[in-house]
């Protein structure tokens, strides 16, 4: 899993005096604005879509759309062009603009704030647009996992959009523009909202924590590794072994899962018991086999006659060494949707995993986790989706153009 949780600091109100004057003084005493956050710029155009390899932003929205009845291939192409043109404007360096016709002034004072908007296609998209001949074999339905408790109303979808930004209003503005630009071509099927730690909230950059308090994401593959692109992106020549057609060159496949964390049950465990379930120290993320957070996990290490990393520890069961090398790039947001009907926090992880072939990445790992991961007792998979995310757009192009106009 990859998830982070945090909260942005805020200046407190100054005590004493009338309420109005207190607020005014507090505003004057606030620290200098973190202008570096607002000026963060991630280009929309490129070989790959933005929002895959970049660090997760402080705010995120995941939303799926279904094409409207009667919306054909031409309508879908027009929609993707509107969306791409809108994102190109909103992510411009320096002073991004609001696309014509969508000026709500919500983000008018802000810079791009590392905004990314990523688009993907579900299986239903190909049927509705008459493009079943271009349906990738790797987009086969995910298998049923025994512990799943999926809500079909919050799963799948014809189109998927991932929005991330380091400012909440910038992220919300992008969401509203995307929804408005859908017009009569598509309607929202489901939407999920997430968050991560705000940049600058810690003294130095560090691996984030999830809502269980664990440092999470240490073993995520990194772009600097020689086999990173092969595991995450479809090669330029396509991927015959996984059935990816030429239009998917430079693209990736996103598995999206809404995973509720049973936090009340988790919090009843001692820290020592929690560390045994994960296989890492909670304080600094170091593996129980020894070292620091970045020390390679020694799955064969023994401590006092027992395995240092328990047989059902999460990092053991999820390790590539335990899954014939299966790897995926996990890029997620935490979520909190209040208190559920059971009186417990409706909170957890909006899990997004990227890979060149989900049948060789996510599926074998999840099968192993579903059957032998000690952490699974404290998780509930409540929604799921798989989407083909095409490569990036060039100047003047729109995402998916090679599919829709090929």
What does this structure look like?
The strands form three sheets. Strands 5, 8, 9, 10 and 11 form a five-stranded antiparallel β-sheet that branches. A four-stranded antiparallel β-sheet has the order 2-3-1-4. The protein has a two-stranded antiparallel ribbon with strand order 6-7. The chain has one domain (20-404). It is globular and about 65 Å long. α3 (73-90) packs antiparallel against α5 (168-182). It is built from eleven helices and eleven strands. The longest helix has 18 residues, at 73-90. It has 406 residues and is α+β, with helices and mostly antiparallel strands. It has helices at residues 19-29, 35-38, 73-90, 123-128, 168-182, 228-232, 263-267, 271-278, 314-318, 362-372, 401-404, and strands at residues 59-67, 116-121, 159-165, 186-195, 252-261, 302-303, 306-307, 329-330, 333-339, 345-355, 379-389.
Task: Describe how the helices and strands are arranged.
Layout (H helix, E strand, L loop, with lengths): L18 H11 L5 H4 L20 E9 L5 H18 L25 E6 L1 H6 L30 E7 L2 H15 L3 E10 L32 H5 L19 E10 L1 H5 L3 H8 L23 E2 L2 E2 L6 H5 L10 E2 L2 E7 L5 E11 L6 H11 L6 E11 L11 H4 L2
Antiparallel strand pairs: 1-3, 1-4, 2-3, 5-10, 5-11, 6-7, 8-10, 9-10
Helix pairs in contact: 3-5
């Amino acid at each position: 899993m990859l998830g982070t949780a945090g909260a942005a600091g805020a200046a407190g109100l100054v005590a004493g005096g009338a309420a109005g004057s207190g607020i005014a003084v507090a505003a004057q005493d606030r620290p200098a604005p973190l202008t570096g956050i607002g000026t963060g710029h991630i280009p929309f155009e490129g070989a790959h879509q933005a929002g895959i390899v970049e660090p997760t932003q402080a705010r995120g929205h995941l939303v799926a759309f279904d094409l409207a009845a009667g919306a054909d291939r031409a309508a879908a192409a027009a929609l993707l062009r509107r969306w791409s043109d809108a994102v190109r404007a909103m992510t411009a360096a320096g002073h991004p603009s609001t696309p014509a016709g969508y000026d709500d002034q919500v983000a008018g004072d802000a810079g791009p704030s590392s905004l990314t908007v990523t688009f993907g296609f579900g299986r239903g998209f190909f049927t509705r647009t008459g493009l079943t001949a271009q349906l990738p074999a790797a987009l086969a339905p995910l298998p049923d996992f025994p512990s799943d408790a999926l809500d079909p109303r919050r799963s799948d979808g014809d189109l998927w959009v991932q929005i991330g930004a380091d400012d909440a209003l910038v992220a919300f503005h992008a969401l509203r523009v995307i929804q408005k630009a859908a017009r009569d071509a598509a309607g929202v099927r489901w939407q999920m909202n997430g968050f991560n730690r705000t940049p600058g909230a810690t003294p130095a950059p560090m691996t984030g924590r999830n809502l269980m308090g664990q440092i999470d994401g240490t073993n995520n593959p990194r772009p600097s590794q020689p086999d990173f692109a092969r595991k995450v992106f479809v090669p330029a020549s396509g991927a015959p072994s996984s059935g990816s057609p030429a239009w998917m060159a430079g693209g990736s496949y996103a598995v999206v899962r809404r995973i509720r964390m049973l936090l009340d049950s988790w919090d009843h465990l001692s820290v020592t018991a929690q560390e045994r379930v994960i296989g890492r120290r909670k304080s600094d993320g170091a593996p129980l086999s020894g070292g620091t957070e970045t020390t390679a996990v020694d799955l064969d290490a023994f401590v006092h006659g027992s395995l240092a990393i328990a047989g059902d520890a999460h990092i053991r069961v999820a390790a590539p060494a335990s899954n014939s090398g299966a790897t995926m790039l996990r890029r997620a947001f935490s979520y909190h949707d209040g208190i559920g009907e059971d009186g417990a926090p409706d909170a957890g992880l909006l899990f997004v995993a990227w890979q060149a072939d989900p049948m060789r990445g996510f599926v074998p790992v999840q099968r192993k986790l579903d059957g032998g991961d000690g952490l699974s007792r404290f998780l509930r998979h409540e929604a799921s989706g798989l989407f083909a995310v095409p490569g990036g757009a060039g100047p003047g192009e729109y995402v998916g153009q090679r599919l829709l106009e090929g």
